[in-house]
């Protein structure tokens, strides 16, 4: 009986310690906006297949940086399947000010406006510091 209680208490203690350690590790990996400094970025066009399918939404991409702030890896955290490949590929072209965290997040917002675009441009890219990019397209393109 005493051995069973000891084993149970030991199990609970290990579980609590493991849970606390996991929560603390998760908190330490938070990427703060003030730590994200973009040095250079590449504009992204609205993916044609997503535009034609009227897919809109937000894609969050986590990037891993080397000592000089160059992106060495990028992975989508969330987003629509048809928007992710172009977002992940685009994120690899960005450059950041080196930081001790060696990680950053880029948030891409894709939206399709009602109305017509004039000219051949099918999308418009706007970057807002520290890490937010909006890619807007129109319902239809009107040739001049």
Secondary structure topology:
Layout (H helix, E strand, L loop, with lengths): L1 H27 L9 E3 L7 H5 L4 E9 L5 E8 L5 H8 L3 E2 L6 E16 L5 E5 L3 E11 L2
Parallel strand pairs: 5-7
Antiparallel strand pairs: 1-4, 2-3, 2-5, 6-7
Explained architecture:
By secondary structure, the chain is of the alpha+beta class. The chain folds into two domains: 1-30; 33-142, 2-Layer Sandwich (TolA/TonB C-terminal domain), CATH 3.30.2420. Helices cover 28% and strands 38% of the residues. The chain is built from three helices and seven strands. It has helices spanning 2-28, 48-52, 84-91; strands at residues 38-40, 57-65, 71-78, 95-96, 103-118, 124-128, 132-142. The strands form two sheets. Strands 3-2-5-7-6 form a five-stranded mixed sheet, covered by helices on one side. The protein is elongated. The N and C termini lie far apart (86 Å). The model is unreliable at 7-27 (pLDDT under 50).
């Amino acid at each position: 009986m005493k051995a069973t209680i000891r084993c149970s208490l030991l199990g609970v203690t290990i579980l609590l310690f493991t849970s606390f350690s996991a929560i603390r590790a998760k908190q330490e990996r938070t990427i703060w906006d003030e730590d994200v400094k973009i040095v250079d970025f590449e504009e992204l066009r609205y993916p044609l297949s997503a535009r034609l399918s009227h897919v809109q939404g937000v894609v969050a991409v986590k990037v891993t940086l080397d000592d000089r702030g160059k992106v060495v890896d990028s992975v989508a955290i969330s987003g629509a399947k048809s928007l992710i490949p172009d977002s992940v590929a685009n994120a690899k072209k960005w450059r950041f000010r080196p930081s001790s965290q060696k990680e950053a997040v880029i948030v891409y917002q894709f939206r399709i406006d009602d109305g017509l675009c004039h000219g051949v441009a099918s999308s418009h890219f706007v970057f807002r510091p520290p890490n937010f990019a909006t890619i807007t397209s129109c319902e239809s393109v009107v040739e001049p």
